Amino acid sequence: MAGSLRGSSTKKTSAAGSGRVQKKAPAKSSVTSKSSAGSGSVYTGTAKGVTQLPAARVKRIIKEDKDVQMVGNEAVFLISVATEMFLESFTAKAFNLSKLEKRKTVSYKDLATAVTQHDSLEFLQDVVPKTLTLTAALEKQRIAKEKEENVTLEEDEDEVEQEANGQGEESEEENQRSVSEGDVNSSRVISDDDELSGPDDMDED
């Protein structure tokens, strides 16, 4: 026993005297990266190239434009991220309006009100209009129809006036031509050889 204890003590002293430092294994970090699908935000930056919207469907929607022939994957990704950020901002504004009325559900009314209250969403007025009653909608439709009819009547009147003006100009040109021709005939000089026929000459014939 004594020999074994002495041997262990000599080993410890030799390891300490040599100056060697034992390296410790790195401790595992408790912080784990969150995936973009599980996190509340749209894009956390940890998973590159991942969006909530399916890229294939976004690409198909972009190709619905006849002017677009080819779309790169990078462009599809950026458009998807921009769309998600816009939808997040839009729904947040609508949700704030629902919270003011002490509601937890976002309704169409909140979206339409957000469009009218924020200048950045003004371009959505035709897509997300404010709700109307049936009588108000019919009245609005009737007024729009009357405006269209008035526009068509004004266009027809303008065409008739243009045609009348064109015919009037042509008639004036014809009158000027006839007047000028009459002036030429009346300005002809009568020579000495030309004799005016009197009543006596007519009886002789």
Helix and strand topology:
Elements: H1 2-18, H2 55-62, H3 73-100, H4 108-117, H5 134-186, H6 199-204
Descriptive account of the structure:
By secondary structure, the chain is mostly helical. Among the domains are: about 90 residues, Histone, subunit A; about 50 residues. Helices cover about 60% and strands about 0% of the residues. The chain contains six helices and no strands. It starts with a helix and ends with a helix.
Classified by CATH, the class of one domain is Mainly Alpha
Note the total helix count. Answer: 6
CA radius of gyration is 48 Å
Determine the fraction of residues in helical runs and give it as a percent range. Answer: 55-70%
CATH topology of one domain: Histone, subunit A
Tell me the quaternary state: single chain
The CATH architecture of one domain? Orthogonal Bundle
What percent of residues are in strands? Answer: under 5%
State the total count of DSSP E strands: 0
Low-confidence stretches are 1-5, 8-17, 29-39
Summing up helix and strand content along with how strands pair, one would put the structural category as mainly alpha
Mean pLDDT: 74
Terminal CA distance reads: 181 Å
N-to-C SSE string, H for helix and E for strand: HHHHHH
The CATH homologous superfamily name of one domain equals Histone, subunit A
Shape: elongated
Major sheet description: none
Keywords: Nucleus
Pfam family, one: CBFD_NFYB_HMF
GO molecular function, one term: protein heterodimerization activity
Protein name: Transcription factor CBF/NF-Y/archaeal histone domain-containing protein
